[in-house]
Amino acid sequence: MIKIDGSYGEGGGQILRTAVSLSVLTNTPIMVTHIRANRSNPGLRPQHLLALTIMRQLSNAETKGLKIGSSEISFHPNNIRGGSFEFDIGTAGSMVLVFQTILLGLLKIRKPVKIRLHGGSDVKWSPSWDYFNEVFLPVLEQMGMSVSAQLIKRGYYPKGGGEAEINIEPINNDLSPITFDVFQPKHIDGRIHLGNLPDHIAKRMKHAVSKKLVNKDVQCTIRTQQATSLSPGVGLTLWARSQTGAVGAVSLGEKGLPAETVACNAIDSILTDLQQNATVDGCLSDQILPYIALSKGRSVFYVRRLTDHFTTNLWVLKQFFPKFSCSFTENTGVVKVRCES
Questions:
Q1: Nearest to 68 by CA among 85, 91, 101
Q2: pLDDT (tens digit, 9 = 90+) per residue, 12-53?
Q3: Which pLDDT does position 9 carry in this prediction?
Q4: CA-closest candidate to residue 202, choices 155, 263, 277, 148
Q5: Helix (H, G, I), strand (E, B), or coil: what is residue 238?
Q6: Using CA of residue 223, residue 301, residue 137, residue 126, what is the dihedral sign?
Q7: Handedness of CA 141, 146, 151, 157 (dihedral sign)
Q8: Is 232 helix (H, G, I), strand (E, B) or coil?
């Protein structure tokens, strides 16, 4: 059994999600202690509990401590099974974070799996749906994973009510490493999503992005998606990707925050990544790190900065794969990361 200290590093839910995913993937029992000990509301929250419950059901795991507020859990997986499943987070908790937990744990499935979730699609402190579908999943597919995703309905804080599903197909080969060394895109894509809010907000956001791109050697196409939702919400996701890189930026609206500020937060972030010659953004670097560890060979990418999630995820990965290593070379405004698996 591998024992994981849930208070290590940034001490959030990412430790728990990665550890349980790797437990299922490697069929290794784990114990996680001090869960989210550094948070104002420590222990398991509803979205973490749901992810664990799903992984327990998919892997026929024997567990202890799976309840709201628990600071310690044990998880002993068995055989993974295929089929179709449906779960409701019950709040606006992030469906994307739950899906990411599932995807890593089910990397080596032998039968197709379909998962439908109800919850939040675009939630603070988590990847937006469009980031998940337009940045994260394409990189996984490039590495060899076979996943399709469909957003059925947006869900915003506080009521949630979103709905989405993923279909995961078995893969026969090892994942391929990535070589994201030169990335100079000339075009950025984006999507503004609005729930129960007027169209002029999207127009103001597009105008703010256009002003930022004056005299810049990059074009941007932003589409607008208007929807009915249980709670009002708005957000902008921008992305640029190719076979040698993928960067994205997410900005969500909140009460009192001008539409122009929401837009500028996103475009400033992605432009800074591109100007510094990053080939992945900071969030993507920690999200794809487990898959890099599971690939065969050397991966290379450039990131503007290493996030706390990255260093924490690296620590968790080394508990399962001691031989996995990453080296870092800092240049002006960018970090070159080499990983050997």
A1: 91
A2: 888 999 999 999 999 999 999 999 988 888 999 877 888 899
A3: 86
A4: 263
A5: strand
A6: negative
A7: negative
A8: coil
Walk me through the domains of the chain, giving residue ranges and CATH numbers.
2-173+304-336 (3.65.10.20), 180-275 (3.30.360.20)
The answer to whether the beta carbons of residues 24 and 51 sit under 8 Å apart is no
Is residue 160 helix, strand or coil?
strand
Q: Which two tokens stand for residue 10?
A: 């940034």
Residues 295, 177: contact at Cβ < 8 Å?
Answer: yes
Active site residues: 309
* Tokens (6 digits) for 30: 């784990």
Structure tokens, 107: 């990397």
- Does the global pTM surpass 0.85? yes
Cis peptide leading into 158, omega within 30 of 0? yes
Burial 63-87 (b: 16+ CB within 10 A, else e): bebbeeebbebbbbbeebeeeebeb
Answer for the pair 238, 190: CB distance below 8 angstroms, yes or no: yes
The residue type of 183 is: F
Nearest alpha carbon to residue 238 among 131, 123, 126, 124: 131
**Average pLDDT of the residues of the chain:** 95
